[in-house]
């Protein structure tokens, strides 16, 4: 063996040893740095991708279908969220008009192809605006989301761990506010719950549909309690969507108990929620609500549902 | 330039593509398109026509671009490896004639494959009763122009690098030009206005293959692209092809064989 080869081999051995020692202390480093734990929902989604090639294909395919659904809703006009720099510059978003769909209406996006006023490319920019699916999206409307239902079914069939597919698909099914739509949405969400046991977003969505479409406060409270319990277990490990769903769960559950006349539980839930979401005005109001004002007739199944928080 | 030499050379490229069973690959890819359509049909096609069209044009664009890159990136290097370049140039043709004939052949073979894939896509979509609008004719026309530009870029790259590297770079350029363009636009928008010309310059130097893809408009049932835009894109395609063939010739004219 040549001298240079020996030197190379010793460097490689030293690198390998360094990597091994770094690997053995990775857990200790993790605690030291206090890295946030991976979100539970995303973890489940990624675990599937990481464990097998089939899982990777399933995850990629469902993500692709999700993107295509978004494109369809915007009639193939590609949108993107604002960058931090654009937010700082105060750039206005091209928000959606209120077309009655609460889940797809909340967006703060701009078109990927810039408007002529923001484009420095000259004729190339003009050509792109003429050949790409582009239009001014200020106050835009959406294509009929019910046409995308087969895609929601397909993406959740391909990847049952893809929770946004279940919740958004159910929201689309329940959009028309008729009993059949609510029945289908609940059936769809139940299938999602089978694949994602105790998932906060799905449980919260079931509670939401039970309250707003069927006025069944008792059933809604049962599901929302399950979401609350799951939230207690997973607190600190939730991703942004699950955390938002948990906040909604506390609001709806507290409102449910108020309308069912269980004021002690209303206050307990609201106060517990405030412990987690101190800035929540709805929970603050529910936690301070004097029982005398709301001690009206006891609400039960079939009565008017609580108004949206 | 010996115009009479170009067509026989181009015809040889097409015959070679048939002989090498490239078109079998196209047939298999066509079958995959049909399977995709069948999978969609399983979940119900009602209301899904736009998705089916989107899927059709996406798959069509993907496969045809891959074929365009692979066919054009191997033309000259293969002749050199097989040592058939010298006998070819011993005939009364110039090096430029050879380049032009090979390039035209690569484009024609790509268009043939594209036509076969488009037919497979059309059959798949028609089987589910998906209607076609006139914009699909424009889509096919502009896609053919785009494929000619992709062929020219891959052809030029194959004279500067190995065939494998040319194919890789060609695909990166063909599929990534849109992404690159967006990155430059974002970077240009966030930098001071005085330096934007720099991003504009880079943007104009990188071939924008994504401009030739109106698949999104076709799937969404948008109105036809104005004729002036089609004309401008034809000029743009001619500029890309001309520039790439010039680069190829500059590299090839003094190359030792």
From TrEMBL, chain B:
Source superkingdom: Bacteria
Q: Name one GO molecular function term.
A: ABC-type transporter activity
Q: Where are the transmembrane segments?
A: 23-43, 55-73, 106-128, 140-160, 166-185, 227-250
Alphabetized UniProt keyword annotations:
Membrane, Transmembrane, Transmembrane helix
Q: Please provide one cellular component term from the Gene Ontology annotations of this protein.
A: plasma membrane
Tell me the protein's name: ABC transporter permease
């Amino acid at each position: 063996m040549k001298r240079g080869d020996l030197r190379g081999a010793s460097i490689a051995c030293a690198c390998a040893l360094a990597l091994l020692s770094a690997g053995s202390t990775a857990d200790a480093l993790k605690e030291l740095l206090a890295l946030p734990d991976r979100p539970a929902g995303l973890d489940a989604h990624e675990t599937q991708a990481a464990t097998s090639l089939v899982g990777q294909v399933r995850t990629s395919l469902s993500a692709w279908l999700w993107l295509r659904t978004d494109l369809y809703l915007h009639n193939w006009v590609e949108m993107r969220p604002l960058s931090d720099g654009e937010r700082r510059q105060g750039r206005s978003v091209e928000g959606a008009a209120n077309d009655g769909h609460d889940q797809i209406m909340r967006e703060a996006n701009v078109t990927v192809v810039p408007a002529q006023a923001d484009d420095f490319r000259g004729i190339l920019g003009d050509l792109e605006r003429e050949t790409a699916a582009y239009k001014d999206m200020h106050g835009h409307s959406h294509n009929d989301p019910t046409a995308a239902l087969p895609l929601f079914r397909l993406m959740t069939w391909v990847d049952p761990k893809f929770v946004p597919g279940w919740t958004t698909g159910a929201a689309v099914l329940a959009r028309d506010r008729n009993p059949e739509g609510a029945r289908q949405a609940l059936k769809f969400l139940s299938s999602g719950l089978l694949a994602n046991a105790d998932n906060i977003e799905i449980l919260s969505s079931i509670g939401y549909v039970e309250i707003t479409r069927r006025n069944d406060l008792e059933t809604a409270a049962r599901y929302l309690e399950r979401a609350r319990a799951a939230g207690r277990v997973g607190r600190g490990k939730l991703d942004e969507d699950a955390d938002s769903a948990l906040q909604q769960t506390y609001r709806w559950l507290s409102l449910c108990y108020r309308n069912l006349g269980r004021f002690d539980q209303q206050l307990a839930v609201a106060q517990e929620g405030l412990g987690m979401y101190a800035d929540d005005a709805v929970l603050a109001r529910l936690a301070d609500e004097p029982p005398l004002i709301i001690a009206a007739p006891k609400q039960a199944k079939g009565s008017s549902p609580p108004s949206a928080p | 330039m010996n115009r009479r030499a170009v067509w026989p050379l181009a015809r040889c490229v097409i015959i070679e593509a048939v002989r090498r069973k490239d078109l079998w690959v196209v047939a298999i890819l066509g079958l995959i398109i049909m399977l995709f359509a069948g999978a969609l049909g399983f979940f119900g096609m009602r209301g899904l026509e736009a998705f089916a069209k989107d899927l059709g044009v996406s798959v069509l664009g993907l496969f045809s671009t891959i074929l365009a890159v692979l066919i054009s990136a191997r033309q000259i290097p293969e002749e050199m490896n097989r040592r058939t370049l010298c006998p070819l140039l011993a005939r009364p043709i110039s090096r430029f004639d050879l380049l032009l004939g090979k390039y035209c052949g690569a484009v024609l073979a790509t268009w043939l494959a594209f036509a076969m894939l488009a037919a497979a896509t059309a059959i798949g979509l028609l089987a589910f009763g998906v209607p076609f609008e006139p914009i699909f004719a424009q889509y096919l026309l502009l896609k053919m122009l785009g494929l000619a530009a992709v062929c020219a870029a891959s052809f030029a790259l194959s004279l500067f690098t190995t065939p494998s590297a040319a194919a890789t770079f060609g695909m990166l350029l063909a599929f990534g030009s849109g992404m690159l363009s967006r990155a430059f636009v974002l970077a240009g928008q966030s930098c001071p206005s005085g330096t934007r010309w720099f991003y504009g310059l880079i943007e104009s130097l990188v071939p924008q293959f994504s401009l030739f893809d109106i698949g999104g408009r076709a799937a969404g049932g948008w109105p036809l692209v104005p004729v002036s835009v089609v004309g401008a894109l034809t000029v743009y395609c001619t500029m890309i092809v001309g520039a790439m063939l010039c680069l190829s010739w500059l590299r090839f004219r003094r190359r030792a064989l």
